[in-house]
Write a structure and sequence with these properties.
single chain, alpha+beta, five-stranded antiparallel β-sheet, two-stranded antiparallel sheet, about 45% helix
Amino acid sequence: MNRSPKQRCEWLEQQLQVSLPEELLLFWEFAKSLRPLEPLSALEDSLGIYLVGAFEVLSGKFDTYSGEIPISLHWRYGLDPPEFFTLLARGENRWHAGYYIDTPAGKSYCVTSYSANDGLQFNFDGRSLFSAVERYLDDKELINDEDDIVLTGAELEESKKACDKVRKALLKYRPLAKKIQVGRRNVVEKTIDGVGVVAADNAVGEIDKSIKKKIPYMVWSDTEYEKVMEEAVRLQALGKAGTALKLAKDLWQVGDEHRIRKAALVMVEAYKKLARLPFDKILGEHLAYLNREWLDILDASSGN
């Protein structure tokens, strides 16, 4: 049976146990309006961006998928935290953007991006995919690679036409997107990776003053990071899961496998206390394949 994009989205949400933002299906319609036969390449000519991840599910690529590799790992980079879902990708520097979803209900989210070659430092690109694409069109430096070819002559003119086409489509879809856009995220704890933690105020605790200002340096230290870990455990025991999660995110950001696994111990408990168990599941799947060399699980499964 040929499933609709909505049915495919529902299947994906069942697999992830996470509700995806309502605008995802609208953005898919936007992509199809730009390039009906190849919507995954709708932003290729204008921005060099390809639609990946959930959009590949909407396209039907996973209609017959029966592999053992969890769908949560499709286009998941090694540094991606469980809350981040890649939707757009381009370039040799492994730039990718997507939804950062704070809670499984999907009502708190934003669009962020980073280059996996440069380490985990999120850029806030917008409150929706539509606003993010508009920002990329206005400032291509946000997505440019160092090795990008400078266009001249006819190529530059074609690129400008492609950008104008996207802008025209954005004007049409912007009113619809605004109707379903959610409010701002209530960030209660800042994190080194730039995205922050969303939680209730009663899940926030005071970090010990002796280490609070030193955390950005301590997480990178070969020995001092253990004190950050101990503080996270202490706050966890006090029921301050939001702040414990903040400290775990700071450790995760370093990217060292040992520190990622240490951080995961705190994150598991924090997700339980914050009622975010689906992220615990995704975290476990991520750690099981932490050193994978692939992003596309269809490619990985076909090689088994």
